[in-house]
Amino acid sequence: MRDGVKYGICTLCEAGCGIEVELEDGRAVSVRGDKADGFSKGYVCPKATALIDLHEDPDRLRRPMIREEDGRWREVSWEKALHTAAEGLQKVRERYGNDALAIYQGNPTVHNLGLMLFAQPLFRKMGTRNLYSPSSVDQGPHMLAALEMFGSPAHMPVVDIDRTDCLIVLGANPVVSNGSIMTAPDMRGRLKALKKRGGKLIVIDPRRTQTARLADEHHFIRPGTDALLLMAMIHTLFEADRVKPSRGALAISDGLSILNQVSKPFSPEIVAETCQIPAQTIRTMALEFADARRSACYGRLGVCLQPSAAVAAWLVYALNIVAGRMDQIGGLMYPAPLVDVGAIARMLGMKGHDRWRSRVRGLPELAGEFPIATLADEINQPGQGQVKALLTSAGNPALSAPNGPALEAALGKLDFMVSIDGYINETTRHANVILPPVSQLQRPHFDVALTAFAIRNVARWADPILPKHPDERHDWEIVMELGLRMMVGNQWPASMLCELIRGPLGRLGPEGILDILIRIGPKGAGLGGSNGKGWTLEKLRRETHGVDMGPLEPRAVDVLETPNRRIQLAPERFVKGVEALREQLQSSPRRALLLIGRRHLRSNNSWMHNSQRLVRGKDRCTLLMHPEDAQARSLEDGQRVEVASQVGAVEVTLEVSDEVMPGVVSLPHGWGHHRQGTQMGVAQAHAGVSVNDLTDDQHLDPISGNAALNTTEVNVRAAG
Ligand SMILES: Nc1nc2c(c(=O)[nH]1)N[C@H]1C(S)=C(S)[C@@H](COP(=O)(O)OP(=O)(O)OC[C@H]3O[C@@H](n4cnc5c(=O)[nH]c(N)nc54)[C@H](O)[C@@H]3O)O[C@H]1N2
Ligand SMILES: Nc1nc2c(c(=O)[nH]1)N[C@H]1C(S)=C(S)[C@@H](COP(=O)(O)OP(=O)(O)OC[C@H]3O[C@@H](n4cnc5c(=O)[nH]c(N)nc54)[C@H](O)[C@@H]3O)O[C@H]1N2
Ligand code: SF4
Ligand SMILES: [Mo]
User: Fold this and answer.
1) Cα of 15 to ligand 3 centre, how many Å?
2) Strands 547-551 and 649-656: what pairing?
């Protein structure tokens, strides 16, 4: 029987498209774009349908699991699982101290209201410095640049993509990724619209990506040289007197003369060979950028996964600022969301860098977290503060962290491990207890973090599409139970106290907390009743298809949190990092092949390969190599090759294509599902290999601690 449709939000990526789900006999049977959603206007990508696959996946855990001594998994009651999990973790804390418990919160956290509002505050208050997340294999450098320049890691400005006339995309592939730190459904449509209104799209990427194919200009760049390119562009603007101090944010910036000074040695001619971009191209691009009526330079993951990531991230923002594009229509802007994320970042203690360092390698924390590249060291190295237990939530670091196999070997040495996850995968197979949450279709949603990076001022609430069975648990319920039992205790009389907290907190839930955050937010109705004007959750709920409060408006002065509330154009940390760029110029060009990653529209990091409809078709986990490089090695398209780095080796099928530049090979991440003991049947049948079996946990950007995954040196030869 057809039960009609329900409206929701796709929580798989940052675009957050509105969806219309058709229900029949209580089951979700189809997912379409919600045409009435004012932001996504009916757009969805092929992954949206997989929400049903995820919900119905027989491999998805519905009940908690405990791993027995003999390695077999046994389904247990929630009471038993939560008790065992809390007791196991708590024992380690009591015996070895708080730092002995490490916590890893994975990428889907940001797409999960319950985890954002419960796990983030709770885990950050557990008294352990061993906090980890994929930020250090992702946007860490942008966060650091935002912290140093604008005063908070939460204040990463976004590209006003719908109103710009000239967009330079550096190391991002939004046509496939659907945008990152730039929440906007239908990137392809938006980029086409940019061109249609006479605008120009320039892409700088070692691969001719789907985005590059849409561009007016695409320039290959030698991986890891973006900071040099950006320096040369800034150099050009100073040299050509295109830096206009009166324009917008530049008037409230400090450090202009230092930036001028440090950019002096980096002329386009000096960097051209290293970047492999002609000097004239760099000059023209810089001047076009400065002279366009409206322009923006957007750098994303490609900029972050290299040894000069923090400097490059700084220079992306700096280039926009010196060209007068910061806080300007069509440039980089700040949304005005319903929830004040700057305040949340302050509350969570995220406003800082290098306040403390990791025990083994002395790596600085960023926003309260250590680089994931050093978790294995913290587990392996004995001594005071050694990590003995791990809690993972919504993450799969065995596949997402550099040198995954070393991390996995370390996981095997833990005294105790708990995972909040719906699958027995490469990471969670090492856990003692797995606590599975409901599916994406069974929970309500509001994007706390991502509306702060949206390209329009939007907000949307979505009720769950499907009901939750009484024996299922939301992520937030799992986190709350685990936290209460660990922090307060299982035994009477502590259990009484637990009861006292559990009741009110459980009744409040994410919805109650969100209502408070909206009410006290910049556009909120206040904590009292509702005056009809300000926002409350109740008011937002009535807007089934979300609200669009219009385009972004200049508001940097309200956002800045630097001590003098001015933009810092030349923070000392980054200026010091410029020395490494000089060295990079002097080092002789290497002959080694550099390995970079790639994403596919039908895949999402490591965890959506268990959907038959997403993995079908030809093998996507192939190594791309330029014909010249293939010829030099006598390799042919379609042949099996061994790719070896200093860390490991994998065997894959070669795809010869001039889509990548000479000297560069590309392998997607998130594959490698052949490991013993996982329970993801479809993924196992389409296993692929993990690129992070090759990446090096020692190869980092020294300033941000981000893993330099994309500049891994490899050798490739015929397999066997
Ligand atoms: N379909 C799909 N969508 C996704 C995801 C997914 O897995 N699949 N993942 C989501 C996540 S977690 C994120 S963080 C975002 C990422 O979003 P994007 O940053 O848009 O995604 P990538 O495809 O990784 O783009 C990075 C680009 O940088 C290029 N690159 C590599 N090295 C260099 C370099 O040194 N310099 C320059 N200039 N470019 C370089 C790569 O060739 C690649 O095209 O995507 C999100 N969306
Ligand atoms: N070489 C290389 N490595 C990379 C990248 C790259 O480009 N190249 N990209 C990096 C980037 S940008 C990122 S963000 C990371 C991702 O790194 P991770 O976050 O560690 O990995 P994911 O693959 O996103 O795994 C997500 C896990 O969360 C579970 N999950 C999904 N939804 C939920 C939920 O709602 N609740 C709970 N509790 N669990 C859930 C899934 O089952 C899966 O186990 O990978 C990074 N690693
Ligand atoms: S782009 Fe695709 S995966 Fe991302 S939110 Fe939209 S439908 Fe979901
Ligand atoms: Mo990411």
Assistant:
1) 6
2) unpaired
Q: Cβ contacts of residue 448 below 8 Å, gap of 6+?
A: 113, 116, 117, 339, 341, 344, 514, 517
CA distances from 116 to 108, 111, 290, 539 (A): 10, 8, 39, 22
Q: Which domains does the chain have, with CATH numbers?
A: 2-49 (2.20.25.90), 65-138+341-550 (3.40.50.740), 160-327+558-578 (3.40.228.10), 590-718 (2.40.40.20)
pLDDT at 709 over 80: yes
Mean pLDDT rounded to a whole number for the chain: 96
Give the DSSP letter string of 207-266: B--HHHHHSSEEE---TT-HHHHHHHHHHHHHHTT---TTSGGGGGEE-HHHHHHHHTT-
Residues with a beta carbon under 5 angstroms from ion ligand 4: 138
Instruction: Tell me the pLDDT tens digit for each residue of 17-63.
Output: 999 999 999 999 999 999 999 999 999 999 999 999 999 999 999 99
Binding site membership of 8 for ligand 3 (Cβ less than 6 Å): no
Amino acid at position 378, single letter: E
Is 120 within 8 Å of 468 (Cβ atoms)?
Answer: no
- State the closest ligand 3 atom to the C-alpha of 13, by its place in the atom list counted from 1: 4
Judge residue 74's burial from the number of C-beta atoms within 10 Å of its C-beta, 0-12 exposed, 13-18 middle, 19 or more buried: exposed
Tokens of 340: 């004040």
pTM for the model stands at 0.98
Residues 94 and 90: their CA atoms lie apart, in Å, by 6
Tokens read off for 79: 């009471």
* Interaxial angle between packed helices 226-239 and 279-291, expressed in degrees from 0 to 180 and rounded to the nearest 10: 60
Q: Are 707 and 373 in contact (CB under 8 A)?
A: yes
Over residues 628-654, the mean pLDDT reads 98
Residue nearest to atom 4 of ligand 3 (CA): 13
- The band of 501, judged by pLDDT with boundaries at 50, 70 and 90, is confident
Q: Indicate the DSSP class of residue 363.
A: P
Q: In angstroms, rounded to a whole number, what is the distance separating the alpha carbons of residues 110 and 154?
A: 13
Quick one: which of 302, 312, 316 has its CA closest to 172?
A: 302
CB count, 10 Å around CB of 12?
23
- Helix (H/G/I), strand (E/B), else coil: 480: helix
Residue with tokens 């049948």: 685
- Residues in contact with ligand 1 by the CB-under-6-Å rule are 13, 107, 138, 170-174, 176-178, 180, 204-207, 209, 221, 223-224, 226, 300-302, 306, 596-601, 603-605, 710
Indicate the residue type of 645.
S
- Give the Å distances, CA to CA, from 24 to 2, 276, 465, 466: 4, 56, 12, 11
Q: 478 to each of 74, 122, 434, 454, 686, how far by Cα in Å?
A: 19, 12, 11, 30, 31
What does the alpha-carbon distance between residue 696 and residue 373 come to, in Å, rounded to a whole number? 8
Tally of CB atoms within 10 A around 290: 22
What is the Å distance from ligand 2's center to 401 Cα? Answer: 10
* Residue with tokens 């980096």, as numbered in its chain: 266
pLDDT at 114 over 90: yes
> CB under 8 Å to 108, separation ≥6 — which residues?
11, 115, 394, 395, 607
Tokens linked to 172: 């991002």
**DSSP line for 59-118:** TS--S-EEE-TTS-EEE--HHHHHHHHHHHHHHHHHHH-GGGEEEEE-GGGGG-HHIIII
**Residue 566 neighbours by CB under 8 Å, 6+ apart:** 252, 253, 254, 560
